[in-house]
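Assess this today:

___
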Amino acid sequence: MTLLLTWFLAHFTGDFLLQSHAMVEDKEEQKLASKYLYFHVIIHFVLILVFTWDLTMWKPALYIAGSHLVIDALKVSLQNENTRRRWFYIDQLLHLAAISVIWAIYTNVDFSEIFKPAQNGQTILLALSIVFLTTPASAFVKNFISKWTPGKESEKGNRALSDAGMYIGILERLLAFIFIITNHWSALGFLITAKSVFRFGDLRESHNREFTEYILIGTLVSFAIAVLIATGYLLLQSELK
């Protein structure tokens, strides 16, 4: 189980933390001719070896990198403007499924011993949870609410700092995660209330229902992800003890 969590951690690190927006745009424009498509795959291969710190893992790392290349190639070749949101989810599900299958084959896993206590298992689980709550979760939130993105008229007068919303979302999810795993649910309520108070003035002055609902959906989805990840962490942590 620890090895699978480590590979998931490597995946989210490579797909979100170490992949810039410029790289994604180049892959979508150049498709199979994009140099970043292959550079991105090499990063995933290296991350598997670095995170496991075991050069004997080169074979499963190669299989994972190969599956990543095939899935990403399918995505950039088949997606269009209308199916971008759908392909985001398909892409991530296929990556996680491929990693899980390769892990099951490589370890000849006994499913009755999946949660057998393992060294560093809880540490890897904590790292995976924290990493996912940063840019990966931001990407999921952004993709989920993209179909409700306000038009230019709705955004008029709602200027904000560049990427401020993303970092605010990351901080609120990390704080929510910490509050939940330390059993301070009241602090989570305070955090939600505090954000609502800060946002209330802006939303009231905007007189724009579309923009208000857009912000509300994004906030609720962000907190929902934090709650689900924290709950999942607590459940898995108890099994890994």
